[in-house]
Amino acid sequence: MYWANSTEQEILQNILLTTIHQLFHFQRTSLNNNTLSFFIGLKQINRIKRWESN
Questions:
Q1: Which residues of the chain form beta strands (DSSP E)?
Q2: What is the dihedral angle through the alpha carbons of 24, 25, 26, 32, rounded to the nearest 10 degrees?
Q3: What mean pLDDT is reported for the chain?
Q4: What's phi and psi for 36, nearest 5 deg?
Q5: Residue 13 to residue 19: CA distance in whole angstroms
Q6: Cβ(3)–Cβ(10) under 8 Å?
Q7: Position 29 pLDDT exceeds 60
Q8: Out of the domains of life, which is the source (predicted)?
Q9: Domain residue limits, the chain
């Protein structure tokens, strides 16, 4: 298994944060809907992962 070192993790986190920030920044008018659908999507991904692992 490959573990990213701390600097790589920081870079990845910064990229993720800026990307998410930009996505929500450009769609601020429907921010509540985007946040809801984002978390619903995360829940579905987690459900699929659990289903695959069983």
A1: none
A2: 40
A3: 72
A4: -60, -50
A5: 10
A6: no
A7: no
A8: Eukaryota
A9: 6-53
Is the Cβ–Cβ distance between 48 and 41 less than 8 Å? no
Contact yes or no for 46/54 (Cβ under 8 A): no
C-alpha 24/C-alpha 39 separation (Å) is 13
Q: Which amino acid is at 10?
A: E
Counting every residue written for the chain, the total comes to: 54
Q: Please give the pLDDT value at position 36.
A: 65
- Type of residue at 27: Q
Q: Which residues contact 34 (CB under 8 A, 6 or more apart)?
A: 23, 24, 27
DSSP 5-52: -HHHHHHHHHHHHHHHHHHHHHTGGGHHHHHHHHHHHHHHHHHHHHHH
pTM for the complete prediction? 0.31
